[in-house]
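In response to reviewer comment 3 from the previous cycle, which asked for concrete evidence that the modeling workflow produces usable outputs, we include below a single protein chain processed end to end. The sequence was submitted unchanged, and the resulting structure tokens are shown without manual editing.
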Amino acid sequence: MTITANLDKLLDKAFEEYALDKLPTAPVSALAGVSDADAESLAKAFNIKTIGDLGRNKYFRAAVAIVNLVEVSK
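The workflow returned the following structure tokens.
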């Protein structure tokens, strides 16, 4: 099954044409608004170097889960 999505607003211009299945291996700085300095800080603090690392990070996943639970319980 082919999945397409317009992720232009989420990605840096240079990564807008990346195939969806390749994005997890792209650097965190490929996300719109994440600077190289931000990416370096994430790498130092959490060993996060790619979008995949960020998405699978247990601390970020826990934070997202907590926020979602709070929003659903309102």
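Residues 13-72 form one domain. We consider this sufficient to address the reviewer's concern, and the full set will be provided in the supplementary archive.
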